[in-house]
């Protein structure tokens, strides 16, 4: 079990950011999911097209005697297929537009959070309590304390700490090694987003 050597935790701010991230993800992802879902008109048209195709197949089995009726049904089917394709294309275009809009709203929110919590650590790591290669070693300088705290944090968040550009941005401007506001916000968003993805897949 890993013990995190905490120096300071801004509990109220952390809870507020976690709640904000969850609400932001619920709203933005919920809107996108709703936009991607089929409308009642599209669902009804699909059912009507299926029924029309079934009726056309039944008439076709009657042979040449039902040629006129079959041709009429086939034309109706082609018209309905075009209308349905137009509805699907419209839904996709609308979904893309909404997705871009929610992405921009999220970006603006990130900038506001970054500015509001600039130079503030939500969770700070205590470098004096991080054990080095030499268990009996004692931190003697502030630089060594900072280096140990940074090393611990990179190991704790590995491999995200090395490949995640967002983590590097979230740590920019922090006075001490630790978790910034954006990292807390994003962790809540990712968790809620994964849950919503699972619900969407089940539905």
Short note summarizing the structure:
With 203 residues, the chain is mainly alpha-helical.
Keywords:
203 residues, mainly alpha, three-stranded antiparallel sheet, rod-shaped
Overview of this protein structure:
By secondary structure, this protein is mostly helical. Helix 1 (11-36) runs parallel beside helix 7 (181-202) and helix 2 runs antiparallel to helix 3. The protein is 71% helix and 4% strand. The mean pLDDT is 80. The protein contains seven helices and three strands, in the order βαααβαααβα. The chain has a three-stranded antiparallel β-sheet with strand order 1-2-3. The protein has helices spanning 11-36, 40-60, 67-116, 142-156, 160-163, 165-170, 181-202, and strands at 6-9, 123-125, 178-179.
Would you list the SSEs in sequence order as H and E? EHHHEHHHEH
- Biggest sheet statistics: 3 strands, antiparallel
User: Termini separation (Å)?
Assistant: 37 Å
Portion in strands? under 5%
Helix content: over 70%
Question: Structural class per helix/strand content?
Answer: mainly alpha
CA-based gyration radius: 28 Å
Q: What is the spatial order of strands in the main beta sheet?
A: 1-2-3
Count, helices: 7
Shape: rod-shaped
Low-confidence stretches: none
Mean pLDDT: 80
Task: Describe the protein's topology.
Blueprint: E1 6-9, H1 11-36, H2 40-60, H3 67-116, E2 123-125, H4 142-156, H5 160-163, H6 165-170, E3 178-179, H7 181-202
Antiparallel strand pairs: 1-2, 2-3
Helix pairs in contact: 1-3, 1-7, 2-3
């Amino acid at each position: 079990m890993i013990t995190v050597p905490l120096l300071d935790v801004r509990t109220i701010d952390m809870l507020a950011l976690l709640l904000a991230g969850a609400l932001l993800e619920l709203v933005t992802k919920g809107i996108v999911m709703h936009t991607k879902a089929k409308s009642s008109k599209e669902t009804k048209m699909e059912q009507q097209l299926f029924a029309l195709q079934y009726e056309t197949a039944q008439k076709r089995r009657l042979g040449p005697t039902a040629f006129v009726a079959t041709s009429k049904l086939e034309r109706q089917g082609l018209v309905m297929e075009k209308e349905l394709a137009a509805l699907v294309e419209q839904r996709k275009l609308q979904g893309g537009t909404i997705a871009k809009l929610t992405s921009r709203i999220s970006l603006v929110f990130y900038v506001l959070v970054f500015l509001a919590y600039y130079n503030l650590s939500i969770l700070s790591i205590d470098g004096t309590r991080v054990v080095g290669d030499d268990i009996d070693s004692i931190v003697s300088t502030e630089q060594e304390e900072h280096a140990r705290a940074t090393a611990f944090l990179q190991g704790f968040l590995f491999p995200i700490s090395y490949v995640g550009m967002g983590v590097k941005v979230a740590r920019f401007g922090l006075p001490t090694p630790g978790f910034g506001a954006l990292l807390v916000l994003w962790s809540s968003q990712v968790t809620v987003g994964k849950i919503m993805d699972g619900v969407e897949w089940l539905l």
